[in-house]
Design brief:
The chain is mostly helical. Helix content is 70%, strand content 0%. It contains nine helices and no strands.
C-alpha cells in the first residue's frame, strides 16, 4: 500500500486529504510534512515530491478551500432578479460556513503564508469575491463610475455575513440571554436588512 501511494500521482491528493485530517484532528499548529507522511504511512521524504515546505502544502489546501467555496456560491439557485439572486448568494454563503467550518476557518481565519503570493491562492480568493461583485454590478451598473461604490457595498455585505457566521459560532452566544427563537432567524433577518440597505443606496 505504501509503495503504491509513493509511486503514483495519487500521492499529492493523498497528502492534501491527510493535511485536512491533521488540521481537523489536532489543529493547524500540528500540520507538518512529517506528520502527513506519518498519517499516510509513507517515507518522510515522500510529500516533498509535491510540496517544498509545510507552507506550500497549507497554501494548496487553502486554494482548494477557496475553489470549493466559489463553486458552492456558483451552485446557488440563481434568480433573474439581482436582489433575489444576492439573497440566494447570502444563504449559500451561510450554508457553506455551517457545513464546512474547518474549510471556512482556513480561508478566513488563517494568516496567509508568505508563499501564497506566488501560488494560485490570490486568484482563487478573488474569484469568490468577484461572484459577489458580479451580482452587485447587475444592481448598480457596470461602468467605472460605480466600481468603487460596488467594492464598498461588497465589503459591507461580506463583513456582515462573515460577522454573523463568527457570532453564531462564538460560545459567548450561549450566555447572552437571547431568546431561543432569535438565533435560528438571524440569517433571514440579516439578509433582509442587507437587502433593504442596498435598495436604499440604489
Amino acid at each position: 500500500m505504501t509503495e503504491k501511494i509513493e509511486k503514483t500521482k495519487d500521492l499529492k491528493e493523498a497528502c492534501l486529504n491527510a493535511a485536512r485530517e491533521v488540521i481537523a484532528e489536532s489543529g493547524l499548529e500540528s500540520l507538518s510534512l512529517r506528520e502527513v507522511a506519518r498519517k499516510l504511512n509513507v517515507s518522510h521524504q515522500a510529500p516533498y515530491r509535491h510540496f517544498p515546505s509545510r507552507d506550500h502544502l497549507l497554501v494548496e489546501v487553502m486554494c482548494r478551500c477557496f475553489r470549493e467555496f466559489a463553486d458552492n456560491l456558483d451552485a446557488r439557485m440563481k434568480n433573474e432578479d439581482p436582489t433575489l439572486d444576492l439573497q440566494a448568494l447570502g444563504y449559500q454563503y451561510l450554508n457553506y460556513a455551517k457545513a464546512h467550518p474547518l474549510e471556512y476557518r482556513l480561508m478566513f481565519g488563517t494568516p496567509w503564508p508568505e508563499v501564497a503570493r506566488d501560488q494560485e491562492m490570490v486568484k482563487d480568493a478573488c474569484h469568490a469575491f468577484d461572484i459577489l461583485r458580479s451580482v452587485l454590478k447587475r444592481i448598480y451598473g457596470d461602468d467605472d463610475s460605480v466600481s468603487t461604490f460596488i467594492d464598498q457595498q461588497a465589503l459591507f455585505i461580506w463583513s456582515t455575513v462573515h460577522g454573523l457566521v463568527s457570532i453564531t459560532e462564538a460560545k459567548a452566544m450561549d450566555h447572552l440571554n437571547i431568546s431561543p427563537e432569535v438565533i435560528p432567524l438571524a440569517p433571514q433577518h440579516a439578509i433582509k436588512m442587507l437587502s433593504l440597505a442596498l435598495l436604499a443606496a440604489k
